[in-house]
Please model this.
Amino acid sequence: MSDKKPTKTWRPRTNLVRGGTMRSQFGETSEAIFLTSGFVYDSAEQAKASFKGEDDHFIYSRYSNPSVAMFEERMRLLEGTKFCQATASGMGAVFAALMCQLKAGDHLVASRALFGSCDYICTVLAPQYGVRTTMVDGTDLNQWEKALSQPTDMVFMETPSNPTMEIIDLEAVAKMAHKAGARVVVDNVFATPYLQRPIELGADIVVYSSTKHIDGQGRSLGGAILFNDEEYWDKYLRMFIRHTGPTLSAFNAWVQLKGMETLELRVTRHCENALAVAQFLEGHKGIGRVIFPGLDSHPQRALIKKQMQGPGSVIAFEVMGDEARVFKFMNAMNLIDISNNLGDAKSLMTHPATTTHQRTGPEGRAKLGITDQLVRLSIGLEDVEDIKEDLEQALNA
Ligand SMILES: Cc1ncc(COP(=O)(O)O)c(C=O)c1O
Model:
């Protein structure tokens, strides 16, 4: 393979299109898909040296694969970290990032406004392995301070959170977490690498579901873990991934490499469309609360301006009436699809109380502000006038 190295450091937009490309002897323009489980050695000596780590020959696709390595390198350049480990899904990334290090007796502090599966890892799985978990209201620095007044091993948070768009002061929490001895893991899915830079704000590890904006066209699952910490890689993550196997497939890595080429263009359009739709919904007669980081009405607008470079693509809002009325509104949609995915080119709507946060239970949902009226809308790349017209006709249905 001819590894085309940049002659100088490329700018981020160039890296999105060319970063990490390893061209084979066939000179293909598009990156190749290496659909192979294993690799052939020139000799038994080379196999031995590869297993000893003295030769960087690929060994087995559970460890690494050329297509996956290209995806990892492009993600690494985008995030600006030393390391990137791709995973089979966003949840694979969250689980590996936390559980590669945590052990019985350790203390994990996490924000309580989490995606349902992230909450399951923190509140069910981690305690099952003997990890003590403290859940806090992520918007309340006093709660973080109290929880982090005792020695802590890891901190996990999602900001903006799914689906109520709570914002956590990354800089302030990272400082407290480091004092308590913890590594800080941030799920940056809603913000994307474009709209928020957690490592620059003090986080140690950033995780993505690349299923969302990085694929961006609803085709494949994937995830990534990014960080600078060599000890974390050598002592924990490398061996955890090798021996438990949550690896990204070469095909999905290739799909997502292609997705990255248009990531910035898409995220820019997502943000423009989402702001226009949020403004349309705010003050509409059939709509209650509208939560969107780009609206001045968001209670944490000052913090959003300080730590985010854009509002993202997801809006949460309440439809006046009971569950039946909300379902009638959703069922009346002609263009917007009912689906629990997000970050897609297609606009997608879900009812968190009965889908992504069903397991949370009525009490848990009440604490998180997830009412039966709340709808989550992931704004796509369609003409924004068509999106607004669809919402208008469904509200009148
Ligand atoms: C904030 C957040 N984290 C993680 C995930 C999990 O990603 P995946 O579905 O790729 O496992 C999701 C999925 O919706 C999410 O919204």
Q: What stands out?
A: The chain has two domains: 11-261, 263-395. The domain at 263-395 is CATH 3.90.1150.10 (Aspartate Aminotransferase, domain 1). The chain has a mean pLDDT of 96.
